[in-house]
Amino acid sequence: MPVDIYVCQTEDIDEEDVRRFDHEDQTYCIYHTPDGFFATDGFCTHEEQHLEDGFVIDNVIECPLHQGRFDVRSGKALSAPVCIDLNTYPLEIRDGAIYLCLSETTT
Ligand code: FES
């Protein structure tokens, strides 16, 4: 059964920015892009680098360690050295608040 977890208010994340969210020993990244809000795993799939320190450009997160890039909408790895996609998670926006659905992944 899906469970929605409150993350923050939409206004707490500027457009083309990323926010870390930790819940029950897991870490996630929540992105605000021109296409809306998206959620992925928090760590890069190349090495254990948290993506919250990366750069959001349009719908792409660039890892700060080796500049690998992912599409945050699909989690797809876009450029070397990353070749493993990120898991993505559904979000819901209700009354200006962001909720993360942790019971299932979309990829
Ligand atoms: S740790 Fe992210 S690209 Fe290497």
Helices, strands, pairings?
Elements (H helix, E strand, L loop, with lengths): L3 E6 L7 E7 L2 E8 L2 E6 L13 E3 L2 E3 L6 E3 L5 E3 L8 E2 L1 E4 L2 E5 L6
Antiparallel strand pairs: 1-11, 2-3, 3-4, 4-9, 5-6, 6-7, 7-8, 10-11
Bound molecules: FE2/S2 (inorganic) cluster (FES).
Protein described:
The relative contact order is 0.24. The strands form three sheets. The protein has a four-stranded antiparallel sheet with strand order 2-3-4-9, with no helix packed on it. A four-stranded antiparallel sheet has the order 5-6-7-8, with no helix packed on it. A three-stranded antiparallel sheet has the order 1-11-10, with no helix packed on it. By secondary structure, it is an all-beta fold. The chain has strands at 4-9, 17-23, 26-33, 36-41, 55-57, 60-62, 69-71, 77-79, 88-89, 91-94, 97-101. 0% of the residues lie in helices and 47% in strands. It has a single domain (4-101), classed as Rieske Iron-sulfur Protein (3-layer Sandwich), CATH 2.102.10.10. The chain is globular, with a radius of gyration of 13 Å. Bound molecules: FE2/S2 (inorganic) cluster (FES).
Quote the beta fraction: over 45%
The CATH first-level class comes to Mainly Beta
Secondary-structure element series? EEEEEEEEEEE
Shape: globular
Main beta sheet, described?
4 strands, antiparallel
- Say what oligomer this is: single chain
Decide which structural class fits the backbone: mainly beta
Mean pLDDT across all amino acids? 94
